[in-house]
């Protein structure tokens, strides 16, 4: 037997949509869920909901972001879409532990399935695309881009609160693993 619980709002910028589906699953106690956040980037003037830009040249005021998360028995799928940002550029992007704020550092470090005891984490044993959610993307001539990733784990409740867009692609070298330069923008997401 399947039970479906859903709460949703219109899919317009500035509105977060939350759909949660609870169902009988081959994996005891697995909750299936889906989260979609669609926002317009604005100036970083406070904390809370929304999306903020710290670098309006790279991520202009009024550009758009969409983040999706979906869980299943096999793990979690993430998607990031940007529109109206700097054209023909590669950005790093990661799920972060804390919400966005006026200071780019407010969003904390990357969410890790297995947390590195040494923070900030730059050890490739922990800072890698299997243990973190990396969503690097390259924009087209119109400033649009889309990326997605899947991992074989679920986000722990309340421990992942945002997606941060960084200045360049994510580094994988020891001592630099997981780094992607300055934090250019941030969108708040309540991952399930």
TrEMBL record:
Pfam families assigned: Sod_Cu
Signal peptide: none
Domain Superoxide dismutase copper/zinc binding positions: 65-188
A GO molecular-function descriptor: metal ion binding
Matches recorded under InterPro entries: SOD-like_Cu/Zn_dom_sf (IPR036423), SOD_Cu_Zn_dom (IPR001424)
SUPFAM superfamilies: Cu,Zn superoxide dismutase-like
GO biological process: superoxide metabolic process
Segments passing through the bilayer: none
Protein family membership: Belongs to the Cu-Zn superoxide dismutase family.
Protein name: Superoxide dismutase
